[in-house]
Design a protein that fits this description.
- The chain is of the alpha+beta class and 388 residues long.
- The protein is built from 14 helices and twelve strands.
- The strands form three sheets. The chain has a four-stranded mixed beta sheet. A four-stranded mixed beta sheet has the order 5-4-3-6. It has a four-stranded antiparallel beta sheet with strand order 9-12-10-11.
- Strand 3 and strand 4 form a beta hairpin.
- It binds a DNA duplex (9 and 7 nucleotides) through strand 5, helix 7, strand 9 and strand 11.
Length: 388
DNA sequence: TGGGGTTAT
DNA sequence: ATAACCC
C-alpha cells in the first residue's frame, strides 16, 4: 500500500477547534499510520472531517441549543443537524416538513448566511497549518494534512534513543468516491460495485471514460490514491448566491444582485486581494434539468479595481451596472422570464504589491509571475501602494 | 435540494 | 462558458 490515512474520530458536543487539535495530538502521539521501512513513497496524511459542522458552530454561538435536537435550515431544507436530531430520525438534506414530522421538537436555526461558518472553517484550517503548511481544504468542514515530513523527523529522533520499530495503527483511507455522472456511465458498463471496477478491463474503461478518469478511479477502487495534498491557501474566488421561488422582473433581480454584491465587497475588502473578474450566474425555472446554470463574466475595469477596499468611494454603482449588463446579456428582459437563483462571483484575485518593475521583488512576486498562484504566507506583502 | 467551493475542457 | 466534481 502506498498510502495510509487516518480518520480521527470526532467527539460530539465539543468545540470544533478542540476536536481538530485533539485529532492532531493523537496523530503526533504516533497513532497516525506510517510505514517505517524504507519505502520512500509512503506518506502520512491525516484527514480531519468535522461532523455536522454548521450545527456545531450554532451550538457554540448559542450554548442553550446544546442538548436539544438542532437542525440548520437553508430555505426549506435541513442541510445538517446535530446528533440529538439524528437520533430522532432527522437526516442531512431532509425537507423541513419531513424533518418536523419525524421530530416535532426539532429546533431550527437559519444557516443561509455562511459568514460564521466560513470564519470558523478557516480557523480550523489555520490551526492545522501550525502542524504542517500542507493543508488542503475540501468544502468548509474537511481538511487533509500531509504530516510526512513531521513524522519522518520524529521517527529519526525515536530511532536514536530507542531500538524498537514503531507499531502502527490507523486504517487505510477508504475511498469510495464516484460522482453522479460517472456513476451513471459506469452502471451502463455493468459496473456497480468497487469489485466490478477493480476487475474491469482497463483498456475498455479508458476508451469509455478517457485515460485520466479511468486510470484514477481504477486505482481508487484498490484504495490507492497517490494524489498529492495540495495546499489550498487563500480562496480563489468569493461568491454569494440566493435561491428563491421566483424572480421575474429586472428591478427584483437588481435588488437581489445588490445585496449579494454588498456582502461580497465586504469579504473581498477584508481579504485584501483584488478581484479582476466578475461573474453573474442564473438558474432559470424549468421542470426538468434543474441543475443547469448559465453564467456571464467579464473583466473588472481597472479604475473600479483601484477603488476596491478604499471604502468611501462608491464602487457599488459601477459594479452593479456591469452586473446588470451581464444580466441582460443572458436574460431577454422584454420577454417574460422566471429565475430561481442568482449568484455573483468575484474571482481572478490578485495580490497587490509594492514591487517595482525591474527589482528583485518584481520577479519574486507570485501575482506577477505568469502562472500566478496567489502566494500566501510565502510572500507577505507589506504596505499597499499600488501600481497594478 | 442549499450555499458554497475546485479543476478540467 | 460550461461541465463535472467535492462538501
Amino acid at each position: 500500500m502506498e498510502q495510509l490515512g487516518v480518520e480521527p474520530e470526532e467527539e460530539a458536543g465539543r468545540d470544533e477547534e478542540e476536536d481538530a487539535a485533539q485529532a492532531m495530538e493523537r496523530a503526533e502521539a504516533g497513532e497516525a499510520g506510517v510505514v517505517p521501512e524504507g519505502s520512500s513513497s509512503s506518506r502520512v496524511i491525516v484527514h480531519v472531517d468535522l461532523d455536522c459542522f454548521y450545527a456545531q458552530v450554532e451550538m457554540i454561538s448559542n450554548p442553550e441549543l446544546k442538548g436539544k435536537p438542532l437542525g440548520v435550515q437553508q430555505k426549506y431544507l435541513v442541510v445538517t443537524c446535530n446528533y440529538e436530531a439524528r437520533k430522532l430520525g432527522v437526516k442531512k438534506l431532509m425537507n423541513v416538513r419531513d424533518a418536523k414530522e419525524k421530530c416535532p421538537q426539532l429546533v431550527l436555526v437559519n444557516g443561509e448566511d455562511l459568514t460564521r461558518y466560513r470564519e470558523m472553517s478557516y480557523k480550523v484550517t489555520e490551526l492545522l497549518e501550525e502542524f504542517s503548511p500542507i493543508v488542503e481544504r475540501l468544502g468548509f468542514d474537511e481538511n487533509f494534512v500531509d504530516l510526512t515530513e513531521m513524522v519522518e523527523k520524529r521517527l529519526q529522533q525515536h530511532q536514536s534513543d530507542e531500538l524498537s520499530a514503531l507499531t502502527v495503527s490507523g486504517h487505510v483511507y477508504n475511498n469510495q468516491c464516484i460522482g453522479y455522472k460517472t456513476a451513471k456511465r459506469l452502471e451502463a458498463l455493468g459496473i456497480s460495485s468497487v469489485h466490478d471496477l477493480q476487475t474491469f478491463s482497463p483498456k475498455i474503461l479508458e476508451k469509455e471514460l478517457g485515460i485520466s478518469v479511468a486510470q484514477r478511479i481504477q486505482k481508487l477502487s484498490f484504495g490507492e490514491d497517490t494524489s498529492p495534498v495540495t495546499p489550498s491557501g487563500p480562496p480563489q474566488s468569493f461568491s454569494e448566491e440566493d435561491s428563491f421561488k421566483k424572480c421575474s422582473s429586472e428591478v427584483e433581480a437588481k435588488n437581489k444582485i445588490e445585496e449579494l454584491l454588498a456582502s461580497l465587497l465586504n469579504r473581498v475588502c477584508q481579504d485584501g486581494r483584488k478581484p479582476h473578474t466578475i461573474r453573474l450566474t442564473i438558474r432559470r425555472y424549468s421542470s426538468e434539468n434543474h441543475c443547469s446554470r448559465e453564467s456571464r463574466q467579464c473583466p473588472i475595469p481597472s479604475h473600479v479595481i483601484q477603488k476596491l477596499g478604499t471604502g468611501n468611494c462608491d464602487v457599488m454603482t459601477p459594479m452593479v451596472d456591469i452586473l446588470m449588463k451581464l444580466f441582460r446579456n443572458m436574460v431577454n428582459v422584454k420577454m417574460p422570464f422566471h429565475l430561481t437563483l442568482l449568484s455573483v462571483c468575484l474571482c481572478n484575485l490578485k495580490v497587490l504589491n509594492t514591487a517595482k518593475k525591474g527589482t528583485i521583488d518584481y520577479y519574486l512576486t507570485p501575482s506577477l509571475s505568469t502562472t500566478s498562484r496567489s502566494g500566501k504566507r510565502s510572500f507577505k506583502m507589506k504596505d499597499s501602494h499600488m501600481e497594478d
